[in-house]
Specification:
The complex is a heterodimer of chains A (about 130) and B (about 950).
Chain A lengths: L1 E2 L5 H14 L3 E8 L4 E4 L4 H25 L7 E5 L4 E6 L3 E7 L16 H8 L1
Antiparallel strand pairs in A: 2-3, 2-6, 4-5, 5-6
Chain B lengths: L7 H9 L4 H17 L25 H8 L2 H17 L12 E2 L16 H10 L2 E2 L34 H4 L3 H15 L20 H8 L35 H5 L29 H19 L37 H9 L18 H6 L27 H9 L25 H4 L2 H12 L5 H26 L20 H24 L25 E2 L34 E8 L9 E6 L6 E6 L10 E7 L8 E5 L3 E6 L6 E6 L4 E5 L9 E2 L11 E9 L4 E8 L3 E7 L3 E8 L22 E6 L6 E6 L4 E5 L8 E3 L6 E6 L6 E6 L4 E5 L5 E5 L6 E6 L6 E6 L3 E6 L9 E4 L5 E6 L5 E6 L4 E7 L7 H21 L1
Helix pairs in contact in B: 2-4, 13-15, 13-16, 15-16
């Protein structure tokens, strides 16, 4: 993984972080460690950060439990929550939880793609 | 018998030396002998031959003491005999009381034995004359029976500090108090292993006023042992005190002076212990036998000394001595913990995944009890970690229990909490034992209650659960969490300060997220890429909008009958153009539009020199970056682009020299061969792209002297599997085999051939060498390959013949950049050259079948479509992409795609979908979607199409 252009894993991570944040439809990134400390946050409002840091890990635990209950050898890796406004992607790791709030294009971009894009996501937020 | 027999000199000496324990020890030895000697015959050790008849056991002495006195026994015997003789004359008391010399000052030791009066007769003289003597005590009951308590344990004298004995008067108290003092001293003065209640003869320090108190205490207890050392540490010496005295109460001083006759009458002997001794008296009957046996034994011993038959040796006895050892241990305490886990928790534990010292970010605890299961079928989750430590007191949650509730529950030591019926914790039972104070000191417990009580309205449940978790999880996990519980902090978001490098999985997570984001964005384009269209039968006319920068929109050229001919046409083919086929094809269905570009900041400005699909993962594209020109060489790069992330390469390899060509191996798809501008060949394992090439050519093993323009894996099934073939401008076509190193064999050294065209007379060559630019092995005959040269001719070679060409194809006037065999008809191939033309050749014919030319620039690459036999695409160095369909026209491309200011260098069709990749000097790879080029599943139909097209277009030309 990673490019050999980069000197080490650390800068790899930084570069990847920067790249992700450079995507214009990424609203925010939130990285909390296993203790709940917020390591990195690009969300502007602190209240919002708190809310995310509170609510999402609880959901992660529930989903992980569900996954593991079904198959104890299985484990949760990622959680994608498509909401009406955006998509929250949660990557679960024993050491940290990475959340990214992504305003996915189907929500606001209509014209460019030939097939109407929001078709597949209709089901998700219709209920 | 009275104590007057004691020598007074000993007494004086004892008084002088009584202050130090050392002196006392010595003196005990010296004074003990007479004490034993003075004993009544009943107290004699039965081992002595002359006392065998009086087989009354000694009162049990401490073992060490007894042994130390054994050597003095002879002396004691003599004295005892004398005493017995003397006692025989006496009357009064039945049993003599013997007080050996004691170094006591007051001589106040007293034994009172169920009689009302004190045995004044013995006590009084003792107090005067027998000061400082040890006593051995013996107790008899009314019937004269020896009831001296046997020591249950061996008393070993230990060193007592003088402090304990500093105030002996304090201990001289009433008899009732004396009872209490016994165990106290037994604990301090001796290492006693029995409990305090055992009846052990004690050595007690009594005060000097015991004499007075003795009067009161004599009725109190039948047994009171007292061997008193005043002002000194107690000695463990016991003295036999036989007490049974007539009641004589001297009241006046003269009476005291009077000798008191004591009559000792013989009572019936009671044998408590009878042991036969080893020592025999000379008067014994069998003495002679014994003596003779002894002498015989000595003779035997002396005989042994010089003999060879005997040898001193050591052996171990069968049974070693057994020792009783006692050790001290704390009182056992029991605690019981309860933990409830679910199936995957158990799976983790059994699988050894969980290390107790490793912090676990989550822990799920479920109720195992049935009733809870039935009422709460959902999994109950208990958060044990501090995932929520970012909570703030200003954000109370109404659904959580109030702090008072949680505090009460935590103080109650467990119990089930249920939150909305879904969260609960298993009941914990905690049973502290006698040493339960230990538990109450546990920081986690107290901390838990404290935190819960002070946690305001926030997350009381979580607080509680966090606090209670150590108890429910046992000590191992608990200790891990304790440390975290102890650090309650509210974390503010910190920008860029925490070191992210410790999070080892972060990079992968970011990669995953990035792919997810990108897939969100590129979803539709990827659908197009994969040619996946649900429910859409006819594609709508593509919008003219193109994503590419400065790109002209799709140029659609309807196949019109004879168009204005291109200005430069070498061979007139105008008349062939509108033959038969045109009307059958709908005009406007074919087009090309861009989807996205594989580009990123790293690749910007580099020249895309080559592209190769991975043979196994059809969505992995290896792209080589390197400059073609000599003057502007810089470091090269190989990037691996995946469809999963079109925005950033999956991995990158930087190389010292520019990469000119790449090819994936067929059999082992992870091997990637690269040819460099420096002439080197390297093979990478793309599973570990960072580790550099796994094998590499060099000066030692040989390398090309000039840039390598093409490498290709060739599978010769018969021989060593796959091998790599490369071509370079140094004229060599080399086959590399992976053995210990990359070793090469020259398949061909390209040489110039005198021009055959037009029969012109050959011109002298400056160099006989020819420079190879491209080659391709025939898909049909694995040993046949074509080599395109810089001079223009194309040679067909065979690996079996390294000296001569099988066929020469003359026609190109400039360097031949690529030759491509047709995937459908194996005798056809295309070649492109910098002479602005693309030519179609038949393997059998030296001259080109067809010549395609529209643009006025060199053609960098040409590719057959993998789906349509008649379709090929070419990329020119002035930014034109042309797609030709020979079925429609051999005069004009059916689609032209133009990007300004771009020098295309390579071209690649996707393997299965109508996708065209176009690489140029801008560093970006244009992914183009071709519309109207549906794959025809029937290969024969395609071949037939191609044949028809050839027949229609070539025959006349071929005839000329």
């Amino acid at each position: 993984m990673g490019s050999s252009l980069c000197t080490g894993g650390h800068t790899d991570v930084e570069i990847a972080l920067k790249r992700i944040l450079s995507f214009k439809d990424v609203i925010g990134l939130l990285l909390i460690d296993a203790d709940g400390n917020i390591l990195r946050s690009t969300l502007a409002e602190e209240e919002e950060v708190e809310k995310y840091a509170q609510e999402i890990p609880a959901l992660v635990i529930m989903s992980r439990s569900a996954v593991r209950e079904i198959d104890p050898k299985n484990d949760l890796k990622m959680l994608r929550i498509k909401s009406k406004k955006h998509e929250i992607m949660v990557v679960v790791d024993p050491q940290f939880t990475l959340m990214i709030i992504h305003e996915y294009p189907g929500h606001y971009v209509e014209p460019p793609p030939p097939p109407p894009p929001p078709k597949d996501s209709d089901d998700d937020y219709s209920d | 018998m009275t104590e007057n027999t004691k020598p007074s000199s000993t007494t004086k000496k004892n008084v002088n030396s009584q202050n130090t324990k050392k002196d006392e020890g010595k003196q005990v030895d010296s004074t003990k002998a007479p004490s034993l000697g003075d004993k009544d015959s009943k107290g004699e050790k039965p081992g002595s031959p002359n006392k065998l008849q009086a087989s009354v056991p000694l009162p049990t002495l401490p073992l060490g003491q007894r042994e130390s006195y054994r050597n003095q026994f002879n002396l004691a015997k003599a004295q005892a005999d004398a005493a017995a003789a003397q006692a025989a004359g006496g009357g009064g008391s039945k049993i003599s009381t013997l007080y050996p010399s004691s170094h006591r000052q007051s001589g106040s030791s007293q034994i009172s034995f169920s009689s009302r009066t004190s045995n004044r007769s013995s006590r009084l003289p003792r107090s005067k004359k027998k000061k400082g003597q040890d006593e051995v005590m013996q107790v008899f009951n009314e019937f004269g029976k020896d009831v001296t308590p046997k020591p249950l344990v061996t008393l070993q004298p230990t060193v007592l500090t003088d402090k304990l004995w500093a105030e002996p008067g304090a201990q001289s108290i009433q008899g009732s108090d004396l009872e209490h003092s016994v165990p106290i001293y037994s604990r301090t003065g001796f290492s006693v292993t029995s409990t305090a209640g055992s009846l052990t003869p004690e050595t007690i320090d009594l005060g000097p006023d015991l004499d007075i108190d003795e009067q009161d205490s004599r009725k109190s207890r039948s047994f009171r042992s007292s061997s008193v050392n005043l002002d000194t540490t107690p000695t463990p010496k016991l003295q036999v005190i036989a007490v049974y005295a007539p009641i004589i109460t001297p009241t006046t001083e003269p009476e005291l002076e009077n000798p008191i006759p004591v009559h000792i009458t013989e009572s019936c002997n009671q044998v408590l212990l009878s042991m036969r001794g080893n020592n025999l008296n000379m008067a014994f009957e069998t003495i002679n036998q014994v003596l003779s046996r002894n002498t015989h034994y000595e003779e035997l011993l002396s005989f042994k000394k010089g003999s060879d038959n005997y040898q001193p040796n050591m052996c171990q006895t069968l049974f070693s001595l057994q020792k009783n050892k006692e050790s001290q241990a704390s009182i056992l305490s029991t605690q019981s913990y309860a933990i409830q886990v679910n199936s995957w928790d158990i799976a983790d534990s059994v699988g050894g995944k969980v290390k107790p010292d490793q912090y676990q970010p989550w822990k799920v605890v479920t109720h195992a009890s049935k009733d809870t299961k039935t009422t709460n079928p959902t999994t109950t989750v208990v958060l044990l970690s501090e995932l929520f430590s970012a909570e703030q007191p200003s954000a109370p949650l109404s659904s959580l229990p109030s702090p008072s509730v949680s505090r009460r529950q935590s103080n109650s030591g467990g119990g089930a909490i249920s939150r909305k019926g879904s969260m609960s914790i298993g009941g914990l039972s905690r049973r502290p034992s006698a040493s339960g104070g230990q538990i109450s000191k546990r920081p986690s417990w107290s901390l838990a209650s404290r935190r819960v009580s002070t946690s305001g309205g926030t997350q009381g449940l979580d607080e509680y659960l966090r606090g209670a978790s150590p108890e429910s999880l046992g000590t191992a996990l608990g200790s891990a969490i304790d440390s975290q519980v102890g650090a309650p902090e509210i974390v503010k978001p910190v920008e860029l300060q925490p070191d992210l490098s410790k999070l080892t999985g972060l990079f992968k997570a970011l990669e995953m997220v990035e792919r997810a984001i990108v897939l969100n964005t590129y979803h539709d384009m990827l659908l197009e890429f994969c040619d996946f269209r649900a429910r859409e039968i006819i594609p709508e006319p593509p919008p003219p909008v193109e994503l590419d920068k400065d790109g002209k929109p799709v140029v659609k050229k309807p196949p019109t009958p004879p168009p204005p001919p291109p200005p430069l046409k070498e061979e007139p083919e105008q008349e062939l153009g509108p033959k038969v086929i045109l009307p059958t094809i709908e005009p406007s269905t074919q087009s090309v539009h861009g989807l996205w570009n594989f580009e990123c900041d790293v690749t910007e400005g580099r020249n895309v020199s080559c592209m190769a699909w991975n043979k196994a993962n059809k969505h992995l594209l290896a792209v080589g970056y390197g400059q073609f020109e000599f003057g502007i060489q810089k470091r090269g790069m190989i990037a691996f682009w995946s469809l999963k992330n079109p925005r950033y390469p999956h991995a990158m390899i930087t190389t010292k020299s520019g990469v000119l060509t790449l090819d994936f191996a067929i059999a082992s798809p992870s091997l990637l061969a690269a040819g460099f501008y420096s002439g080197n060949v390297a093979i990478y394992d793309i599973r570990n792209p960072k580790e550099g090439p796994i094998i590499q050519s060099g000066f030692e093993t040989g390398k090309h002297n000039d840039p390598i323009w093409k490498v290709q894996w060739v599978d010769h099934s018969s021989e060593h599997g796959e091998s790599l073939v490369s071509v370079s401008t140094d004229g060599r076509v080399s086959q590399w085999s992976i053995k210990k190193d990359l070793e090469y064999v020259n398949l061909m050294r390209l040489k110039r051939v005198p021009g055959q065209n037009k029969g012109a007379q050959p011109q002298p060559f400056i160099s006989r060498r020819s420079a190879g630019l491209c080659f391709e092995f025939s898909p049909k005959h694995p040993s046949v390959y074509l080599v395109g040269t810089e001079e223009g001719p194309i040679y067909k070679c065979d690996r079996s013949y390294s000296e001569q060409y099988m066929q020469m194809y003359m026609g190109h006037n400039g360097p031949v950049y690529q030759v491509r065999w047709s995937p459908f008809m194996s005798n056809l191939f295309l070649s492109c050259s910098s002479d602005w033309t693309v030519r179609l050749w038949n393997e059998e014919q030296a001259n080109a079948l067809l010549v395609f030319q529209t643009v006025n620039m060199g053609i960098a690459d040409v590719q057959w479509s993998l789906a349509n036999a008649c379709v090929f695409a070419l990329a020119s160095t002035n930014g034109h992409l042309e797609v030709w369909d020979m079925q429609i026209s051999v005069m004009k491309p059916i689609v032209v795609y133009y990007i300004e200011n771009c020098v295309f260098s390579c071209l690649l069709f996707a393997l299965e979908t109508p996708i065209l990749l176009l690489g140029g000097n801008t560093g970006s790879i244009n992914v183009l979607r071709m519309e109207g080029f549906e794959r025809n599943e029937d290969e024969n139909v395609e071949i037939k199409k191609l044949k028809d097209a050839l027949v229609a277009n070539v025959t006349r030309h071929g005839g000329t």
